[in-house]
Specification:
By secondary structure, the protein is mostly beta strands. Helices cover 4% and strands 24% of the residues. It has helices spanning 146-149, 153-156, and strands at residues 38-45, 56-60, 95-99, 105-110, 120-126, 134-139, 162-163, 168-170, 173-174. Strands 1, 4, 7, 8 and 9 form a 5-stranded mixed sheet that branches. The protein has a 4-stranded antiparallel sheet with strand order 3-2-5-6, with no helix packed on it. The chain is globular.
Length: 187
């Protein structure tokens, strides 16, 4: 029997991202109880500045040692049903998936990325009305970086997460309008 392929967010326009795409523990990239855990959080806003309650964010990043492979298992699926099999909560996978809540807020627990140069976390945004997902980066510090250096100061600021207390970083994503987040195009 041939495998049945289901539509993905790029094939149709949502909002249906909260159905079947999020998975339990998707907001925990860091191993449970790891002392170096940081939290990246914020809101996703539309062009009018209204929080988006049904966005879905994929995150991927380098491990603290700079490696990019991660441990398999972030999205282990049952080959028979396609259901989520779980992750062990111990290994660093480098990938997370978080849906925004009713207030358009998200939170991700991870380890500081060990990128060469400035540390950043890559973000892919799926939201209502987008026919194609958007890519951006959340930098955890400001400094010299080829991408940041190519941007005017006001646009550059949209990629820098604000450091808070207790190992937290705030990174709001604005899809349009004033303060629109810089989005990247890959070819």
């Amino acid at each position: 029997m041939p495998e049945r392929l289901l539509p993905t967010p790029s094939h149709t326009i949502g909002p249906f991202y909260g159905h079947a795409l999020p998975f339990p523990g998707g907001d925990d990239i860091a191993p449970q109880g790891h002392p170096d855990t940081i939290t990246l959080h914020g809101h996703v806003y539309d062009g009018a500045g209204t929080p988006i309650p049904d966005a879905l964010l994929d995150f991927w990043q380098a491990a603290p040692d700079g490696s990019l492979t991660g441990t398999p298992g972030s999205l282990r699926r049952d080959p028979s049903t396609g259901g989520f099999l779980g992750r062990n909560g111990v290994d660093f996978t480098g990938f997370g998936r978080v849906a925004t809540d009713a207030d358009g807020h998200y939170a991700l627990r991870t380890l500081p990325p060990g990128n060469a140069g400035l540390p950043y976390i890559s973000v892919c945004v799926f939201a209502r009305g987008l026919t194609h997902h958007l890519f951006t980066r959340a930098y955890l510090a400001d400094g010299t970086d080829p991408l940041l250096d190519a941007l005017p100061a006001e646009r550059r600021a949209t990629l820098i997460a604000a450091e808070g207390t207790l190992r937290t970083y705030r990174f709001d994503i604005r899809l349009q309008g004033e303060g629109e987040t810089v989005f990247l195009e890959f070819q």
